[in-house]
Amino acid sequence: MSPEDLAQVLSVLPKFDDPNLLVGAQTADDAAVYKLSEQLAIVQTVDFFTPVVDDPYLFGSIAAANALSDLYAMGAQPLMALNIVGFPRKSEKLPLSVLKEILRGGSDKATEAGIPIVGGHSIDDPEPKYGLCATGTVQPGSHWTNQGAIPGDRLILTKPIGVGVITTAIRAGVCDLVVEQAAVDSMKALNRQAAEAGRKVGVRAATDITGFGLLGHLKEMLKPGLRASICFSKVPVFDGVMALMKEGYIPGGTRRNHAAVASHLRLDPDVSALEAILLCDAQTSGGLLFAVGPDKAHSLIEALTQQGQTAADIGMFESGESTLIQVSS
Ligand code: CO
Ligand code: CO
Q1: Class of 154-328 in CATH
Q2: Which percentage of the chain shows pLDDT scores above 90?
Q3: Which residues neighbour 89 within 8 Å (Cβ) at sequence distance 6 or greater?
Q4: What 3 state SS string does 77-118 have?
Q5: How far is the CA of 97 from the centre of ligand 1 (A)?
Q6: Ligand 1 center–CA 71 separation, angstroms
Q7: Distance 12 CA to ligand 1 centre (A)
Q8: By the 8 A CB rule, do 44 and 109 touch?
Q9: Distances (CA, A) of 308 to 102, 255, 301
Q10: 145 C-alpha to center of ligand 2: Å?
Q11: How remote is the CA of residue 270 from the centroid of ligand 1, in Å?
Q12: How far does the centroid of ligand 1 lie from the alpha carbon of residue 208, in Å?
């Protein structure tokens, strides 16, 4: 759903006032954090979606990596997960072997993350859906949130963007295989090593880049008094994405993301409208976005690079009355 529609719907729900709920729904964070004791908090998240690629095993891997990413974005250690499955009961086109492959992909990814999938729930659904409800643990207070960045902090991104555009082109049957492979490899990759690098160095705030796109999730890190400036040319983008966008392969969700943040954007004259839309591209299983003190930015980039991760310094937080995002070329 679009960020605006979601905010409107969620506004009718009661707000909880529980001192043990360290992170709830108010700050649109990646997962909830609930303190059980001074040493232990549980971290809970859920994510599922329709297939982004044709190969069922890959779809399962990507959906699981995407769901677990919200735990990594909180600085949590994954503990276990449950499957969420929508699948047609009787279908010529989709035999049960397809579902087996989806679940095998999810299970292998969970194993890679070091956790078991301990159960799940399935419903009869004409359009397949898959994901996880995942639980992790963290020491209360040492968890990350999407809040807490301060002016001067650098913004470090750990995966290229553009997979929304690429999966749209894949569905249309026009995507170059090399371009497709790069996006699939990125989507199925866990954010575990990136999170480990962040823990090692110490970061001020974190989130992961998923459905609302880079700028949508960056906006959630802002508040009155804190704005951000990013440099378009520093943002890593998969090869071929701009060309596909010029041919019109732009997901509806990406356009909605752009519309939702447009009033907060200040584009330098040499940043094109298409470039701004690309920065809002709806990602599946995107990278982590860290806010890190300027003194630690270099160490973080080094630690990420050592782990074989993308480490792009794309901009910084600044002080400023309104929650603006300035985009330079
Ligand atoms: Co998230
Ligand atoms: Co999520």
Answers
A1: alpha beta
A2: 91
A3: 124
A4: EEEEEEEEEEECCCCCCCCHHHHHHHHHHHHHHHHHCCCCEE
A5: 30
A6: 8
A7: 22
A8: no
A9: 27, 32, 11
A10: 13
A11: 31
A12: 5
Res 85: pLDDT: 98
pLDDT tens, residue by residue, 241-259 = 999 999 999 999 999 999 9
By the CB criterion, residues less than 5 angstroms from ion ligand 1 are 30, 70, 208, 210
Q: How far is the CA of 139 from the centre of ligand 2 (A)?
A: 21
Give the global pTM.
Answer: 0.95
pLDDT for 260 equals 93
**What pLDDT was estimated at residue 28?**
84
Please identify every stretch of the chain with a pLDDT value under 50, giving residue numbers as ranges.
none
- The residues near 152 (Cβ < 8 Å, ≥ 6 apart) are 293, 294, 316, 317, 318
Domain ranges of the chain: 11-138, 154-328
Query: What CATH architecture is 11-138?
Result: 2-Layer Sandwich (3.30)
3-state secondary structure of 10: helix
Give me the residue label for tokens 């040493």: 39
Q: How far is the CA of 73 from the centre of ligand 1 (A)?
A: 7
The predicted pLDDT at position 217 comes to 96
